[in-house]
Amino acid sequence: MTIQTIDAIPLSHSLDGRALGSSRGKTDTRFTTLVRAETEDGLVGWGEAFAPPRTVATAIDELLADEIVGMDPYQVESLVTDSYTGSLVDYHFADGPFVQSAISGVDIALWDILGKLTGESVTRLLGSGDVSSVVPYASTGYFTSWGQDIEEPMRAAADEEFTAVKLKIGRGVEDDIDRVSTAREILGDETQIMVDFNGNYTPKQARRSVAALEKYDLTWVEEPVPAENLSGYRQLTPELDIPVAAGEAHYGRFEYKQLLDERLVDIVQPNIGRIGGLSEARFIAKLAATENIPVCPHVWNGGVGVAAALHFYASLTTYPHSENVPVLLPFEFDRSPNPLRDELLEDPLDPRGGELAVPDGPGLGIDIDEEALERYRIE
């Protein structure tokens, strides 16, 4: 069985000027690229590439499609390696974000096909079948163009019965304190709280902020300094008692190996839609396990990408923990408006109530709403 067609479908949705985001910037558009792969026998697999859609669609069409057509889907784990060696795409460009994002979408689609071919979920194909649900966390508390008060999204998260919440900070220490103290007051002592600086501080600024926030019992601090500031992580991480998480802006096994080897972070956060797909995320997870560093994927994707990340997360090893120790950090679920997540799947994933089910059908266990797909397609 071989791949007969591979199609990249760029998608976009305008938020009508209501921009939201982080301390490093806001967006008034949600976008992604779906990848549709079909075998000669008519099996269809779906993937998602999380990067600017027209650019990624062009990369798939111009750089990958000719090599993917005719490929055996069982060769899926060779995609990223072949990109590094130059067998799939010129190695000079292989480790760039757009090529890796494009490969991610294809990789996920081929895993979906393999699951449908074997009748198994992607979670089982990746090596686990015991995790049927995970604890989601509300990724919320964004900075907005309309100046939304932090109380509003925190109360919404509480009303939806989330037991873990992440909010944006990074606009100054006093503002950080105000936002986190408000969140703790509303959410109570039992809720896990994480904070995301989105790399907007120097190491000294981050240290001051984290010191001021320690009394609020944070589960982790995310991207306290920019992704490229490895010396900043080298300086900061050993000094903090609160775990440092990062990885959403890193690409590929070689960058992750440096994060892991030097213990620059305490938690790594690959995004399945741009890291190289499930295969590369699986490789990175094994590297992380050898260094006893937890993996908790970054998820700000559309519905297909969320499903892929969920299967990956459910497959992760619990090393070194026994059954007597909590083993998985909560799973990210964005609470900002995104029809590319909530409308593209015939049965949308529902994180409310403190539990998120892992789809148990073959492959990713999802079906695409074709009408919604056409509604958000970029012509």
Quick tags:
379 residues; alpha/beta; Enolase-like, domain 1; TIM Barrel; 2 domains; three-stranded antiparallel beta sheet; 13 helices; 15 strands; 36% helix; globular
CATH topology of the largest domain: TIM Barrel
Described by the principal axes of the CA atoms, the overall outline is globular
Series of secondary-structure elements, N-terminal to C-terminal: EEEEEHHHHEEEHEHEHEHEHEHHEHEH
Classified in CATH, the superfamily of the largest domain is Enolase-like C-terminal domain
Arrangement of strands in the largest sheet: 13-12-11-10-9-7-14
CATH class of the largest domain: Alpha Beta
Got a strand count? 15
H/I helix tally:
13
Find the structural class using helix and strand composition: alpha/beta
- Note the gap between the termini: 31 Å
What is the count of structural domains?
2
CATH architecture of the largest domain: Alpha-Beta Barrel
Query: Which parts are unreliable, with pLDDT below 50 for 5 consecutive residues or more?
Result: none
Mean pLDDT: 95
Question: What is the CA-atom radius of gyration, in angstroms?
Answer: 20 Å
Sheet with the most strands, sense and barrel status: 7 strands, parallel
Beta-strand percentage range = 15-25%
Helicity, as a percent range: 25-40%
